[in-house]
């Protein structure tokens, strides 16, 4: 998918990707801070691929991306993959995010994939993975999410 089909705040960027009922997808402030762009998204299959941009300000004293920022990227990817597949009036909150840090992450692009692995009437489990541009797995997570009514 090209840059024009990624999620931003403008309607033209959102036109190529849409949630249930054709509603436009939006990047909330935290996703914008993390530089999230959607590479591909299939709400029916419960799968999504994303790219995040780890800025130098996200680094720790060792010059690698802080683990909490990586966890935020995983929370973002797993949450988006589930939430955008839900009908209007329903959202989900993360109850548990079990994260494993496998390799240090450098500033720059970080790729994420997420997939819904279990789902029932009360919630879902979503697995996520972060990879370097070279394809090295940096971190993985399992998110347990609970459905809640919006507003």
From TrEMBL:
Q: Drop me one GO molecular function for this one.
A: acyl-CoA hydrolase activity
Q: Where is this region: Disordered?
A: 1-23
* Organism of derivation: Camelimonas lactis
Supply the name of the protein.
Uncharacterized protein (TIGR00369 family)
| PANTHER family membership | UPF0644 PROTEIN PB2B4.06 (PTHR47260:SF1)
Q: Which UniProt keywords apply?
A: Hydrolase
Domain named Thioesterase is located at 62-138
InterPro entries in the record, alphabetically? HotDog_dom_sf, PAAI_dom, PTE-AB_protein, Thioestr_dom
Q: Can you tell which superkingdom this protein's organism belongs to?
A: Bacteria
One Pfam family this sequence matches: 4HBT
């Amino acid at each position: 998918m090209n840059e024009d089909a990624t999620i931003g705040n403008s309607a033209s960027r959102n036109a190529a990707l849409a949630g249930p009922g054709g509603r436009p997808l939006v990047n909330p402030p935290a996703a914008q801070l993390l530089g999230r762009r959607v590479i591909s998204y299939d709400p029916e299959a419960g799968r999504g691929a994303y790219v995040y941009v780890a800025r130098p300000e996200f680094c720790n004293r060792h010059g690698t991306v802080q683990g909490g920022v990586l966890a935020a990227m995983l929370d973002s990817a797993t949450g988006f993959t589930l939430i955008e597949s839900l009908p209007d009036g329903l959202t989900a909150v993360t109850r548990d995010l079990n994260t494993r840090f496998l390799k240090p992450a450098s500033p720059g692009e970080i790729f994420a994939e997420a997939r819904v692995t279990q789902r029932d009437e009360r919630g879902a489990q979503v697995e996520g993975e972060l990879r370097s541009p070279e394809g090295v797995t940096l971190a993985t997570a399992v998110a347990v999410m609970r459905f809640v009514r919006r507003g």
